[in-house]
Design brief:
Blueprint: E1 40-46, H1 48-51, H2 55-65, E2 70-76, H3 82-86, H4 89-96, E3 102-105, H5 116-137, E4 142-146, H6 168-186, E5 189-191, H7 193-202, H8 223-238, H9 253-267
Parallel strand pairs: 1-2, 1-3, 3-4, 4-5
Helix pairs in contact: 2-8, 5-6, 7-8, 7-9, 8-9
């Protein structure tokens, strides 16, 4: 696997990849010198938490600003779970479209926050099946679990079923527990997005109102939340600190810097 600690000096741009979801395209870099590193190919598999605010492109923009060569594709439909993707011909075609360096897996926003017993019994088999399909396609593909955040007011749909999820903090903890069950049993790496969200929400000195992390439904991310999410995933994939990255996604520069610092801290960079 490539050492992505070293930044390439020339970006390799690729055309829109075949498959489902959003891709990226751009004109080739000027000049005739060959790139120092080949393009890192990243596949995102998830649902609306992945496609709202075009998260894959936000991650790509972080890479572009850092002169890191990256291309991506995604399979993301509203409400999709690992079970959905396990049996989706579209997702399976995206997995087999090429050899992927990294595959970012995001489960439905409530499924991993079930009781640990239920995660083991009902959710883990679907995570394992997806990882098996990815590894069958290319054993060298690295799995990155996109651990999501709790809902602003907790998971009210399942509060009576599992009291831990009744608050934002508890729901976030339950999600972290579930993704760690996936990690322990399938291997890979967790992008600790949910824990980064909690750090920001708990920080009374944050340079914005914490409700800006969510959209109006208290579930999906606002742009502030998606930017933090992208910074965590970018750092988790490439082991590069997002601190000092020039890409702000249109956010106030001081807010972008703050979110970059939070992401770097949670990833341990």
């Amino acid at each position: 696997m490539l050492d992505f600690f070293s930044h390439t000096l020339i970006i390799v741009m690729v055309g829109l990849l075949s498959g489902c979801g959003s891709g990226n395209s751009s004109a080739p870099a000027s000049g005739s010198a060959p790139p120092l590193l080949p393009t890192a190919k990243v596949l995102f598999i998830g649902n609306s938490y992945t496609y709202v605010n075009n998260l894959p492109d936000l991650v790509y923009q972080f890479a572009l600003a850092d002169n890191v060569a990256m291309s991506y594709d995604s399979s993301a439909t509203g409400g999709a779970s690992f079970a959905t993707h396990r049996y989706s011909s579209v997702t399976q075609a995206a997995i087999s479209a090429q050899a992927w360096d990294f595959v970012v897996l995001q489960d439905q926003s409530q499924t991993p926050s079930q009781t640990p017993a239920d995660v083991f019994a009902y959710a883990l088999p679907n995570a394992q099946a997806l990882v098996d399909a990815i590894k069958l396609n290319d054993a060298a593909s690295q799995i990155i679990y996109f651990e999501t955040w709790g809902r602003e007011n907790g998971d009210v749909d399942n509060c009576l079923y599992y009291s831990l999820v009744c608050t934002f903090a508890g729901h976030t903890q339950a999600l972290d527990d579930g993704y760690n069950i996936y990690l322990t049993n399938t291997g890979g790496k967790i992008a600790p997005v949910g824990l980064a969200w909690k750090a920001v929400v708990d920080d009374t000195a944050a340079p914005f109102t914490q409700t800006a992390m969510w959209s109006n439904d208290g579930s999906h991310p606002g742009l502030t939340g998606s930017y933090l999410t992208a910074a965590v995933i970018y750092a988790s994939i490439f082991n590069i600190s997002p601190v000092g990255n020039s890409y702000t996604a249109g956010l106030n520069a001081s807010i972008a810097v703050y979110l970059q610092q939070q992401a770097a801290t949670l990833v341990g960079l």
